[in-house]
Amino acid sequence: MKYLILIIYFVCCNFLVKGNNANLSKANCSDGYIYFEGTHSCYGRDPEIGLTWSTWPKAEQYCEKHGGHLPSIHSIEESEFIVSISISLNFNIWVGLYSVDENYSWKWSDSTPTDYIPWFYGYVYPIDYRVNASCAYVYPEFDQRGSLVNDFCNNEQYFICQIPAAKNS
Questions:
Q1: Which Gene3D superfamilies does this entry report, sorted A to Z (predicted)?
Q2: Can you give the pTM of this predicted structure?
Q3: Residue ranges with strand state E in 51-164
Q4: SS3 of 66, please?
C-alpha cells in the first residue's frame, strides 16, 4: 500500500510541477524526493514513514536528521513548486518559517534570509495573531500573492524536507 501511495505521489507531483523547474531525473535525489532546479534541492521525505503528520518541531528535527530542513521559500517559483506538492496531496505542508517573538518577526529554520514571505492571499502579516501561532504551513491553493498560513507549532500537519541535491558523479 505504501508503494502505491508513493507512486501516486510522484505521478501527481510530476504532472503538477512540470512547468516549475521540477525534474525527477536530473539530480541524484533519494527515493521519495523530487528535484527542483531553482534551488538545486530535493523535496520530500523517506517513503517508509508513509502519510504521517507531525508537529513543526518534530518535522524540523526529522528533516535535520536527514540532512536538510523544512522548506524555505525565496521566490514565487519556489512557492508555486511547494504549493503544487501540497495541492497534489491535498494537505497543508509545514515550511521552515517560524517566529520566536510572538509573530513580530519571522525566520527560516535553515538560517537563510527572510527576504520573501508569501502570506496567504497577499496579507502583509500572518493571518492568525494568537500568541504561539508561530509556525507556518503552505495552504494547498496557489495564489500569486501567497499561500502561507501561521499555526500553532504543536498542531500536526503533513511535512516535506528540503535537502541539497547530491552532486552528479
A1: Mannose-Binding Protein A, subunit A
A2: 0.82
A3: 93-98, 107-108, 135-138, 148-151, 158-159, 161-164
A4: coil
- C-alpha cell of 45? 521525505
Residues 6+ apart with CB under 8 A from 25: none
DSSP 152: -
Say which residue the cell 534570509 belongs to: 113
Residue 37 and residue 51: Cα distance in Å, rounded? 25
CB–CB of 163/40 below 8 Å? Answer: no
Cell 500537519 belongs to residue: 157
Count the Cβ atoms, other than its own, within 10 Å of residue 104: 8
Q: How many CA atoms lie within 13 A of 80 on its CB side?
A: 13
Any idea which residue has 521540477 for its cell? 22
User: How confident is the model over 40-72, as pLDDT tens digits?
Assistant: 999 999 988 887 899 999 999 999 999 999 999
Phi and psi torsions of 99, nearest 5°: -130, 140
